[in-house]
Amino acid sequence: MRKLILLVFFSIISVVINAQNLDINILKAINNNRNKSLDKGFQFLSNSVSPISISTPILLYSAGIIHQNKTLKEKALYIGEATIAAAIISTSLKYSIDRERPFEKYPNEIEKASDAGSPSFPSGHTSSAFSTATSLSIAFPKWYVIVPSYAWASSVAYSRMHLGVHYPSDVLAGAIIGSGSAYLTYYLNKKLLNKRK
Questions:
Q1: Which of 52, 59, 51 is nearest to 75 (CA)?
Q2: CA–CA gap between residue 79 and residue 81 (Å, rounded)
Q3: I want to staple 76 with a disulfide (CB 3.0 to 4.6 A). Which of 16, 57, 102, 160 is the partner?
Q4: Which residues contact 77 (CB under 8 A, 6 or more apart)?
Q5: Helix orientation angle between 168-196 and 124-139, rounded to the nearest 10 degrees
């Protein structure tokens, strides 16, 4: 039994070490081989997250007021709730896990091409982008909403690695948290709506 426990323990350690190596190796491949002329464009994409994630529910709610459309206002509130949920979860995890940024841990191997202040895991930009994309796609399930929303969110996720401020695992976790927050908020809203009826 003791040998089995040791085998499982060392297997887990091996997987974690290999995962960390894969994480930094993928990031190095992206960051070191990047086209630096695209840095400004990827910085713009990264910087678009807060304005888009905040303005989307506000503009939709305003349109709902102007057109006296209760459904549109409800969808706007849902998108705003999803964004807030993703931000709370991401920020809580960032400061609980307190992972060092890749350019801090590997200063000679990763070039930082953008500002980054808080801890690395998960990517808050990716979380917000995927929360907005997923909640928009759920609220307005049309291809012309879904495709651009996810194209933008995926580009934001890639930009964080291109700019050297996040590991691939940070970005993956951010995408899962953002999308998960949108689905969770949708589910809770639906449940509350059914209780009111």
A1: 59
A2: 5
A3: 57
A4: 57, 61
A5: 40
Residue type, 44: F
What string of pLDDT tens digits covers the 197 residues of the chain? 566 565 555 444 444 445 567 888 888 888 888 888 888 999 999 999 999 999 999 999 999 999 999 989 999 999 999 999 999 999 999 999 888 888 888 888 888 888 877 888 899 999 999 999 999 999 999 999 999 999 999 999 999 999 989 999 999 999 999 999 999 999 888 877 666 65
Asked if residues 57 and 83 have their Cβ atoms less than 8 Å apart, the reply is yes
């190796």: which residue's tokens? 25
In this structure, are residues 181 and 171 in contact, taking their beta carbons and an 8 Å threshold? no
pTM, two decimal places:
0.86
Query: What whole-number distance in Å separates Cα of residue 152 and Cα of residue 134?
Result: 11
Number of residues in the chain: 197
